[in-house]
Amino acid sequence: MDRSLFSFIWKNSRKQQLYLLAVIVAAWPVGFLVLELPKAIIDRAIGGGGGGPPYSASLLGIEVPFFGDQITFLITLCFAFMGVVVVNNGLKYYINVYKGRLAERLLRRLRFDLFSHVLRFPMPHFKRTSQGELISMITGESEQVGAFTAGAYADPAFLGGQLLVAIGFILAQDWRLAVAALALYPIQIYIIPKLQKRVSALAKRRLRQVRHLSDHVGEAVSGISEVHTNDTAWLELSRFTDRLAKIYNIRYELFRRKYTIKFLNNFIDKLAPFIFYLIGGILVIQGNLTLGALVAVISAHKDMSAPWKELLNWYQQREDAKVKYEQIVTQFDPPGMLASGLQLDDAEDQGPFEGDVELSNVTLIDEDDVQRLSNVTFKMGLDRHFAVVGGGGSGKEELGQLLARLVFPSRGSIRIGGQDLTQLPQAVTGRRLAYVAASTPLQAGAVRDNLLYGLKHRPVRAVDYDDDGQRLWESDLAEAQLTGNAPFDYAADWVDYTAAGATNSEDVFGKLVEVMDVVDLSNDVYQMGLRGTIDPIQRPEIAESVLSARNALKDRLQEDAYRDLVELFDREKYNTNATVAENLLFGNPVGEGFDMSGLAENDYVLQVLDKVGLRDRLLDIGQQVAATMVEIFADLPPGHEFFEQYSFISSEDLPEFQALLARADRETLTGLSDEDRVKLLSLPFKIIPAQHRLGLIDDEIQGKLLEARQVFAEDLPASLKGAVEFFDADKYNAAASLQDNILFGKLAYGQAEASQSVGALITDTLDQLGLRGSVLAAGLEFNVGVGGSRLSTVQRQKLAIGRALLRNPDLLILNEATSVLDPATQSEFVSRVLAHRKGRAVIWMLNRPGLAEHFDRVIVMRDGRSTENGAFAELNSNGGVFADLLKSAA
Amino acid sequence: MSLNEEVELLRNIPLFSKLEGSKLKLLAFTSERLTYEAGQLLCKQGDMGDAAYIIVDGEAAVLIDSASGEIRVASLGRNDFVGEIAILCDVPRTATVKAESKVVALRISKDLFFRLVEEFPQMAVEIMRELAHRLEATTAQLREAKSA
Question: Among A459, A545, A464, which Cα is nearest to A495's?
Fold first, then answer.
């Protein structure tokens, strides 16, 4: 990466900078004409200067003759003026757009370079670099540099040119006056950089402080639970205040100094006329200078001062951008960075490695000069399973990282299949080897995408674009190539299915299920599938299957063992295990049209209730609910958990309802304010008759509600069509989960173990219909959230291991990868993974030495050395380090 | 069955007979009314308990696992109170309760139970009386067993 901002700009936009300069220079006479034409119009055309025809106008120093009368002359000049104005503004527009685009391209290149450097940072560097700082550099700071880049060459060249022309003009008039006009410039040239230096130093400090600020925010966010549990909010806030104070102080001084420079510039600028008036005036009075010459010099100085001021401005911006650029770039060039070729170069597919993994005298010295590994030597066939055991600090973790080429050995060599591991590009190591560490952050997206992540090295199949799409992609690609960005289409299919032993996106499913079974993730994904939703238009086959499962389940629910456990949805029947709201809508709300907890305020719902004459009845029920709630819950202390669990009214609202009831007693329900009525009316919607047993939703009300249900569906205005996905026994409900779609009803309240029995029944039904795969497929679409946060730690880790297995690597390195798993299941887990990897190399850094019994061979690490190396039984019986480890772990 | 009917039912249970109406309503409203088929377990010996049960209808047996197999120690019927030991002294369930016919029971959570006891000393006395009765019965059984 270029250390200097200007060499970065020159190298990457030389041609454009020169072109821009050429356009600006070409536009100059036009801008000049815009000023000269009005003068000619007033002086020559209107004023008739020069005294009658033939007329002429002086433009750009050339006398342009005109043949015609005064009026035509005026009209011609006016239209010429109009034309010049249009051209001038057009050119300005063009230059601005061109500059903006140039700046954006350079910014884009800069950001891309920065990010690509981040990807190649040596691993230990991340221990010292904060994420917040990196983000603020790539996003915020580079933006300010980018804005400057477009004018980096063109502006000073153009302004300098203007200045030189002006100086040349004065020189031609009188060299003494030129010297006078320029006399003060050397002072500015001498003083201002000196002052600017201090400003730049302050800007540097400010930048560092702002980075600390973003660093602090990042730290607080990731450690938020620590803040809550340690009562350290004031500490954090004070630390933040401290940083803000530092920034404030720096900023304040920065302003003062910056504006001091501005002040000096302006002052010196005005000092020149002062000298002209004084000395020039004396010279004129004494007769040593003509008045005309003095006026000419003063106006020439005016011409000079405009570009000169802008030049100084540019200089300040340049210093600012330079500081920022240098501050960024030094952070992105740490020593020991991975060579770009090792990361990005393609490699010929050389097929699987054959032979051995050979470590000889591998030594690792870390950045603090501590020897982490000393002369580790061993050899392992690529069909063997090795365990590495040792305590914390034994070096086993570093050994895993070395084998995965995350770090490079300080001395010694690692060869795999006869090739030096340190020389292989990631196109080989990242496909032939697989590595799973103790905790793996996932990518936001579906489970499926995460499992396939390890197969996405280069785009494999292009997107089948339509004409517009193709054009857009081609222009994006051209722009990417122009700015040194990645030349690949992110939207393409990147999955290398063949590496997983499949041929396309369909039959890779079998492989996914296979590895999910190995890592014991299938049941979790199955549950995700049941709880998740699918789009029946995209996955019609799943929707179809679910409907057949619904029917099958309906039959099974008639059996004695399951009778009464589920109350099915039936358009003609009131469902006593659903809320009144659900009974009325008889469907799931989609989008914003209906809010289940705000139906009492929904105009359309009220309209429906009025039509069947139910509004006043529900209001009445609302009052009774409120009265009952107040009676039951009034004595409970506020905030008691019963409110949360059982009450229709929260503890904060209870006093309000008490007052409301008193008002209602006084004035009858119709006399209540609209607000009160909404409050009361919202209560009955929450009633689940079977559960709450309030006896308020009697047969008559149920009948009315059924009527309302029908009216609701029939009268639904066009604007609300699609706002409810109705329950329909023959249709898949896209707004409900897979499970709810299969059940198509509500679990009956108060039946012991109903949930477990019905859950088992659903699974059973799906299995009988051969639909397990469909549910798994739906589960694979489950979005894991940012960093996989919607999965448990254990699920994340299983998924990471599954991802590695799916790639079918020549060597699988598992670095304490199962430490988060339940100890009771670890042994089984290990043997399942090893069975799956039969005949393929596995090297597993174990967190529990006892697990080593599943492996062909055990390497025992201690203080960075491999102290023992042998079969489990042999090491166990010889009473050495391994036997000790086993004993202490037991 | 509606809330009001349930309140009447609770009022007939000696343990709650002295509670005022609103408390009985709270009890009825916040306790879960569960139906068990014959053979289903209300609670299982060894599990941690978080609720006590009042049998509203049906018959249940109290069973204890012992070295010599399952021993039936008591029968429960309408208005009987069971499962209070586990929630009173935070120990695992001391016995298994199994429905012998269709059983309807009111499940009273630990929280609600303690709240009621704290607020109504009369109820605590009732529970003490009940526990004393059981202790007496157990002692008698022990005496018989020893003399046998």
Answer: A459
Which CATH fold would you assign to the domain A5-204+261-331?
A: ABC transporter transmembrane region fold (1.20.1560)
Domains of chain B: 3-147 (2.60.120.10)
Q: Is B29 on the interface with A (CB under 8 A)?
A: yes
Task: State residue B1's pLDDT score.
Answer: 61
CB atoms within 10 A of CB A862: 19
Pairwise CB contact (< 8 Å): A693 & B2 = yes
Output DSSP code: residue A424. S
Instruction: Give contacts of B4 with chain A, Cβ < 8 Å.
Output: 695
Q: Which residue has the higher pLDDT, A199 or B17?
A: A199
We find that the CATH architecture of domain A356-450+787-889 is 3-Layer(aba) Sandwich (3.40)
B114 touches A: beta carbon within 8 Å: no
B80-to-A329, A709, A876, B50 alpha-carbon distances in Å: 79, 43, 60, 18
Give the DSSP H/E element, type plus range, for residue B21: helix B21-30
A639 touches B at CB < 8 Å: no
Decide if A5-204+261-331 and A356-450+787-889 have a common fold: no
Per-residue pLDDT at A238: 92
pLDDT score of A890: 65
Amino acid A19: pLDDT = 92
Task: Please indicate whether, in this complex, the C-beta atoms of B30 and A692 are within 8 angstroms of each other.
Answer: no
- Residue of B2, B19, B27 for testing the chain A interface, max A β-carbons within 10 Å: B2
Break chain A into its structural domains and give their ranges.
Answer: 5-204+261-331, 356-450+787-889, 533-569+729-780, 571-726
* Cβ distance of B25 and A635 shorter than 8 Å: no
What residues in B contact A635, CB-CB < 8 Å?
Answer: 22
Q: Which residues of A fall within a CB distance of 8 Å from B29?
A: 632, 646, 692-693
Inter-chain touch B36–A752, beta carbons under 8 Å:
yes
Question: How many C-beta neighbours within 10 Å does residue A559 have?
Answer: 9
Does a cis peptide bond (omega within 30 degrees of 0) precede residue B121?
Answer: no
- The confidence score (pLDDT) of residue A50 equals 54
Residues from chain B contacting residue A643 (CB–CB below 8 Å): none
Between B4, B22, B26, which is nearest A695 by CB?
A: B4
What integer pLDDT is reported at residue A792 of this predicted model? 87
* pLDDT, position A648: 79
Cβ of A467: how many Cβ atoms within 10 Å?
A: 7
- C-alpha B58 chain-centroid distance: 13
Is A642's CB within 8 Å of B35's CB?
no
Is A753 touching B (CB cutoff 8 A)?
A: yes
Which residues of chain A register pLDDT less than 70? 48-54, 173-174, 177, 666-667, 669-670, 890
Q: What is the pLDDT of residue A49?
A: 56
pLDDT tens-digit map of A378-431: 889 888 899 998 887 888 888 999 999 888 899 899 999 888 888 888 888 888
Q: Does A694 touch chain B (CB under 8 A)?
A: yes
Q: Evaluate if pTM is beyond 0.80.
A: no
Among the listed residues A722, A890, A721, A834, the one whose alpha carbon sits nearest the alpha carbon of residue A384: A834
